[in-house]
Amino acid sequence: MEDINLHFTGDFNAVQLANNLLAAMLDNHIHQGNELNIDVRRVTWRRVIDVNDRALRSLVISLGGPGNGFPREDGFDIVVASEVMAILCLAESLTDLKQRLGKIVVAYSRDKRAIHAAELKAHGAMAVLLKDAIKPNLVQTLENNPAIVHGGPFANIAHGCNSVIATRSALKLAEYVVTEAGFGADLGAEKFIDIKCRKSGLRPDACVVVATIRALKFHGGAERTKLNEENLGALDKGFANLERHVRNVRDVYGLPCVVSINHFTHDTEAELELLQQKCAALAVPVVVARHWAKGGHGAEALARKVVELADSGTANMQFVYEDELPLVMKIEAVAKRVYSAVGIKIDSKARLRLDELEREGYGHFPVCIAKTQYSFSSDAALRGAPDGHTLVVREIRLSAGAEFVVAICGEIMTMPGLPRVPAAERIDVDSGGRVNGLF
Amino acid sequence: MEDINLHFTGDFNAVQLANNLLAAMLDNHIHQGNELNIDVRRVTWRRVIDVNDRALRSLVISLGGPGNGFPREDGFDIVVASEVMAILCLAESLTDLKQRLGKIVVAYSRDKRAIHAAELKAHGAMAVLLKDAIKPNLVQTLENNPAIVHGGPFANIAHGCNSVIATRSALKLAEYVVTEAGFGADLGAEKFIDIKCRKSGLRPDACVVVATIRALKFHGGAERTKLNEENLGALDKGFANLERHVRNVRDVYGLPCVVSINHFTHDTEAELELLQQKCAALAVPVVVARHWAKGGHGAEALARKVVELADSGTANMQFVYEDELPLVMKIEAVAKRVYSAVGIKIDSKARLRLDELEREGYGHFPVCIAKTQYSFSSDAALRGAPDGHTLVVREIRLSAGAEFVVAICGEIMTMPGLPRVPAAERIDVDSGGRVNGLF
Amino acid sequence: MEDINLHFTGDFNAVQLANNLLAAMLDNHIHQGNELNIDVRRVTWRRVIDVNDRALRSLVISLGGPGNGFPREDGFDIVVASEVMAILCLAESLTDLKQRLGKIVVAYSRDKRAIHAAELKAHGAMAVLLKDAIKPNLVQTLENNPAIVHGGPFANIAHGCNSVIATRSALKLAEYVVTEAGFGADLGAEKFIDIKCRKSGLRPDACVVVATIRALKFHGGAERTKLNEENLGALDKGFANLERHVRNVRDVYGLPCVVSINHFTHDTEAELELLQQKCAALAVPVVVARHWAKGGHGAEALARKVVELADSGTANMQFVYEDELPLVMKIEAVAKRVYSAVGIKIDSKARLRLDELEREGYGHFPVCIAKTQYSFSSDAALRGAPDGHTLVVREIRLSAGAEFVVAICGEIMTMPGLPRVPAAERIDVDSGGRVNGLF
Amino acid sequence: MEDINLHFTGDFNAVQLANNLLAAMLDNHIHQGNELNIDVRRVTWRRVIDVNDRALRSLVISLGGPGNGFPREDGFDIVVASEVMAILCLAESLTDLKQRLGKIVVAYSRDKRAIHAAELKAHGAMAVLLKDAIKPNLVQTLENNPAIVHGGPFANIAHGCNSVIATRSALKLAEYVVTEAGFGADLGAEKFIDIKCRKSGLRPDACVVVATIRALKFHGGAERTKLNEENLGALDKGFANLERHVRNVRDVYGLPCVVSINHFTHDTEAELELLQQKCAALAVPVVVARHWAKGGHGAEALARKVVELADSGTANMQFVYEDELPLVMKIEAVAKRVYSAVGIKIDSKARLRLDELEREGYGHFPVCIAKTQYSFSSDAALRGAPDGHTLVVREIRLSAGAEFVVAICGEIMTMPGLPRVPAAERIDVDSGGRVNGLF
User: Fold this and answer.
1) Cα atoms in the 13 Å half-sphere on the side-chain side of C348
2) Which range in C374-388, D10-24, D170-184 is most confidently predicted, on average pLDDT?
3) Is residue A185 scored above 90 in pLDDT?
4) Are B389 and B341 in contact (CB under 8 A)?
């Protein structure tokens, strides 16, 4: 666990180097004569670093005179926010990886033409830096079961799933493969299906919707500080949130599903019973999973249920929208069908950008919606299963190599800052190399 | 070779992360209330990155409003220029490493007090990030001989030797250990002895002075484009350069030495003969080494000579100066005894800084002179064995964790830029993962 | 005319110097120890310059090391956008001017306390710089009539009227005084009444609403390129715009008014007749003014009408809102009563700022709404007399010395840029000092 | 006096506006397509402002996105440091002024071609802004004598004399005209002769060397805090400084001169006598001037002596060097002949710049040396009449419109900062408009 949290196999570093090599080649191109006529004010490619460092969010680079290039505004994101990470996780092969890297749009020229990484001849060297990182990493659980840990695109501005190559490798090695799709089923599952499955051809046989009684009580109005107390009323009310996720999975995505209750010490029998009743009314199987306390054994019932569902042949996976739908209507489709919004509202600049992207030939891309994971709406305070809300789209970004269009709905942070007392202050190592404070 | 040139074992990345974590904690401390009263204009700690990127040499960070910290001027160096790299290579153990990291001076307060990494509570976490990087890396040569590749402090502003731990490990594993001290014997050997040996207690038994006939002809006045032509006159004249290195090694450092002529295809018999005659006159053994063409066999004679010297018991290693000498006189000692300068001249700001360092208790540190490797003087154009020159010291920097004081003599580049046609443009990988263009 | 457009009496320069002296004293205070604990990221006072210079809109200052102060983000506005200009135009005397200058809020401290110019001891010297500028400037028209030209607060972010002292001086010198209130009657007249009259106690006896047939046709839907063509339909429809202004003046502000049609060469008889009929139906007197073509004589009828109205004793000036109304409701009152909006919508940060200002004791200030002059709404494209729109408030700024709160609705430019071909390129002077190209 | 120190006739403001209009047109040109291919890193034209404001010395402008131009490093100087001020003071007429403005070099292109103000079509409008400022300002002394106050080029980086037009006007109005040449006779008189007289053809008939007993004692080694005490030894020794100035004026510049002792209250009779003896030995007339205490009457003896000298016909003004001498040798001529240096030393970049300027056709320009006024050498600490020193030239700047080449020797500040307690804090105005604290 410690190694995974420290440098692991160096994949993140490789992504960082590939990302930053591209940035250096871009600024070098401008410095050496700027044959491509890049507009320094319209560079969209940012540098990345694997440290939470707010000081690097917004800066001015290339100061200090002619030897240091042309001054311009720039910023750093964290490594997982790099489009290179998204590309690594969607690439089918090293060749595909290289081609996608070449298609990254890094800037616009003075006459507003998109400039690609391939025009800077950077994609070959970037692929070399990533040639080992593209290989999935096999680790083992505490019970010595194999697990593949590979890639980590930022679920906010990217699709949040591990790599296609890892999933495919696992499918060749095992009879059943379980993979995670980050954040709530409105975000994670939707992107898993509309981006990862669409691109790769992968098709899941069943879906596990993970829930906790605590979270459902919170969605039912319970206070954050009282989630350890039994509260059947709040659970009853908050079930609407789970119900909508289940309906999305079954009716919108077309997948059979099981609800897995991640068991907590303070969950009461009455609460578990109520939840089971409500799931029964919804005709969805539900299993209480106790792997946190009991290890693999605690999830055995869940596993058997998943096998049963997967073998049932009832899966009929559906995208939320088709490729040919215009980008605006794709966003609207997700908003209405998955979030139960009444519609979308797009800021004027974002609307113009979508039109531009259609004209530039990116209209067939899927959309990757960046939204709070705390609500079906874009307002984190709206709990439960809100209706009647409008999705507000503030900004549009293109990930031309990852092949999706990001629609940002709300404040999205691509470079966190350290807190008042950074965790690092408590981390230490003794003379024997034993680490303290990491967890 | 390819792996070593790509990510290798991730040591550089670990150094980068440790360096940049410290920077982030520093800016975070200022942002969160600045209890230590750090002066943002007097921050000396810079960030590092492992890409040649002139755009990052000089920048303004923390722009964009109160959430992003306090604006200040900053810059990036390459990873090898980080003091963390120098510390890694001088540390005796993980505990020593951590203590040295804590002693790094990162900034000065509004009332000009030095601020240390330990005051930011960063050194523990930094040591954790370096806990694997501190272990030497064992590789093998093409002929399957073991070699240890570990660390790489920038020979310009640091001491340029691999790690103490690597040298010690090798000494436990083998009967004879050969280690490199980067750049000419005026720089590399001097720092090896006055910094690495002084600190660690390591003592060499013999020294190999590597030379080429091409370089000696260049020092004798031959044009750079005509070094492949026989030129006995230039060789005869340029021998003064080699002679001075040999005399420094024997008389100043107190070590028996052998001259190893790194043989090139165009070296003529007459040239080799002249060189051997001149070495004989100097009473120094000389061997022609042909390992580039013939592998280990080509260096066998050299190896036997080294063994003979090492076993001779004639080594009596001497420092160029003693610890208690004031910093100014240490610089002068190196300038006069090793560079044959008539004296030193120190810019007024540098002189004030030296006085400050004496007062702050760093007077017993060795000095690490940053100077061109192309001349015994600080003027790269002065070839051969110049006399009568004056060493001009322009700037003083403190490496409080590495425990030396850097004296910068001339323009020192701590962040290179990419050339007009970056090598990366020619680097590529095919679908089978074979890399082209890396060498 | 030329002199007025060049340096005139130096008033603008005096305002610039007073504004920039305050900025220099602010940064100097921070540099010299920052006793007031000013947060460099929360400085609200900007520098000004009397050149249209987009390069100065957004910059980073105090770079280059400890001697040059603490780096921070800053920007320049044009001189007329300085709060000093607004203060100069609202001050009753030199003493009042100095007190208002002292109340300017220039920044916030680390603990978010407002910092005033008086705390920097800058207001005395600022008043000295303005001691001549505060005196009204008497000029004459081409027909040798006296006119006072004094002050010019930017109608976008300030109240847009000339100085109180100038108006008062004129009232002592003449029997009837005409003064201008910049931009449409929804902006100019509202600010004249709610800010200038409220503060000074001045009360107008009558109001002239200036209109052109061209503008009314435009408001009725005519294309900008066809305004010289007769278009009775568009005039008929666009009259709704004039009607609303007249109703605002009569019913909201409580002032008798006359419509003055600024006659253009291409206005047709049929258009003038239609306009007169529609004004008659509205029971508002209307006069065609031809002073552009005929000088004072051309406005004689208008003048006689104004005298008649002024002498009628029918004026009963009313504010749009009272002092004690909360700031939010003041904005709402203007939006509903003057702009015919259905309501207002305030961005969350602006809402928080209004709450802060109420708490800090600025709740009794009048509001100064910065809005497009092209529409009654905040959408410049909505011509005529739109209903049902919502006023969107994006940003709140405090002018504590001028004693009003600015509510910014839409993009407000406080520093224009030069066009592709600057007018300056065509301006020249011959050897005799005759200027060409200025008009 | 107060009015002169405040806005006076607005000349400084006009210079500021002309300077800054040129800057805005330059950045606008780059923004609008940059037809001249200006390199943003090689812009030499700086903005100016009439406030001591260290925060503006070094900044980054044009931040905030494509609408605000191209980011670049910039800085502000004070108004008197503007080349426009130097041009105003050297111009013979409005036409000459405009032509000189057009010749200003504002930047270099990507291919290192000089870009002139005329290429930006800015000089016409600049001349319009200056059309009144070019006219000399007539004021009167407390005794109602006429005086012309006009222009003020910064004596550090410009020639430090008032305008040619003012001098010529005075010569037409009076029988004898006295004009000042700022700072010591090594700087002020040299530039007056080699720049102002050379360009204009003006020829002085006599020279007044102003000295104080205090200053001479300081040059003789007395401490700054003890200058009010009689110290004949120091005066005797310090006389060497005055002697060298007198010799320069007589022997190098070829002008008859009188020494005027600016009398101070603490000067003793013995000191005055010693000074007179030493002057007698040097055969130079000396007069004690008491105008500070006694008004015009106190300088009557001096005036009579000046008239006598001026009428003597002994003046034979000589330049220190001829036009055709290369720039390097012109600097050397001043250094040796006026400063008594043994030679000059030029930093390598400055040397290259001089070579460039010769190639670009500026070799015939006079040189304007920027040096401390506290010593004949470039080291402010070297008092008296030092010999054997070397003049170190650090930087070269071109004033193509003013038609001289500036050689900077030492730290030159073109933008002062405010002190810990700015004088402005004590300046105030009462309700009657009376100013306190200005003097």
Assistant:
1) 3
2) D10-24
3) no
4) yes
Closest by Cβ to B427, choosing from A58, A128, A429: A128
pLDDT tens for each residue of A35-82: 999 999 999 999 999 999 999 999 999 999 999 999 999 999 999 999
Residue type, C145: N
When CB atoms are compared, the residue of D60, D68, D129 closest to C54 is: D68
Nearest chain C residue to B40, by CA? C70
Listed residue (A32, A118, A48, A114) closest to B422, CA to CA: A32
C364 touches D: beta carbon within 8 Å: no
Place of tokens 């969950």: A267
Contact assignment for A54 to B62 by CB distance below 8 Å:
yes
Query: Nearest CB to D28: which of C31, C74, C418?
Result: C418
C352 touches chain B (CB under 8 A): no
By C-alpha distance, the chain B residue nearest C42 is B66
Across the interface, whether the CB atoms of A71 and D65 are under 8 A apart is answered no
- Count of residues making up chain D: 439
For residue C245, name the pLDDT band (cuts at 50, 70, 90).
very high
Q: How far, CA to CA in Å, does D179 sit from each of D161, D170, D203?
A: 8, 10, 12
Cα angle: C414, vertex C418, C423; to 5 degrees: 125
Share of chain C above pLDDT 90, in %: 87
Cβ contact B58–A64 (<8 Å): yes
A78 part of contact set with chain B, CB < 8 Å: no
3-state SS, D268-328, equals: CHHHHHHHHHHHHHCCCCEEEECHHHHHHHHHHHHHHHHHHHHHCCCCCCCCCCCCCCCHH
Interface contact C41-B65, CB threshold 8 A? yes
Query: In this complex, is the C-beta atom of C71 within 8 Å of any C-beta atom belonging to chain B?
Result: yes
Question: Shortest CA distance to C425 belongs to which of D38, D30, D120, D129?
Answer: D120
**Contact flag A62-B55 (C-beta cutoff 8 Å):** yes
Q: Which member of B7, B49, B64 has the closest CB to residue A58?
A: B64
The CA-atom distances, in angstroms, between B101 and each of A55, A126, B17, B83, B127 are 22, 33, 13, 9, 8
Task: Compute φ and ψ for A185, nearest 5 degrees.
Answer: -65, -15
- Give residue-wise pLDDT tens across range B218-256: 999 999 999 999 999 999 999 999 999 999 999 999 999
Nearest to A60 by CA among D56, D70, C70, D63: D63
Three-state DSSP class for residue B302: helix
> Among partner residues D33, D65, D73, which is closest to A71 by beta-carbon distance?
D73
Is B100's Cβ below 8 Å from some Cβ in A? no
Residue A336 in tokens: 């209405």
Q: Which residue has the tokens 């049963």?
A: A308
For residue C198, give both structure tokens.
């409220």
Q: Is the ipTM of this complex over 0.90?
A: yes
List beta partners, residue D344.
D391
Q: With contacts defined as CB-CB under 8 Å, which chain B residues touch A49? A: 20, 49
CA–CA distance, C129 with C17 (Å, rounded to integer): 7
C-alpha of B85 from chain center: 11
pLDDT of residue A297: 94
Tell whether D327 lies on the interface with C, counting CB pairs under 8 A. no
Q: How many residues does chain C have?
A: 439
The answer to whether C271 touches C232, Cβ cutoff 8 Å, is yes
pTM above 0.90, yes or no: yes
Query: Which helix H or strand E contains C236, and what residues bound it?
Result: helix C232-247
Rounded to a whole number of angstroms, the distance from the CA of D24 to the nearest CA of chain C is 5
Subunits with 3+ C-beta pairs closer than 8 A to D? A, C
In which region does residue A110 sit, left (phi positive, over 0), alpha (psi from -120 to 50) or beta (all else)?
alpha
- Tens digits of residue pLDDT in C73-101: 999 999 999 999 999 999 999 999 999 99
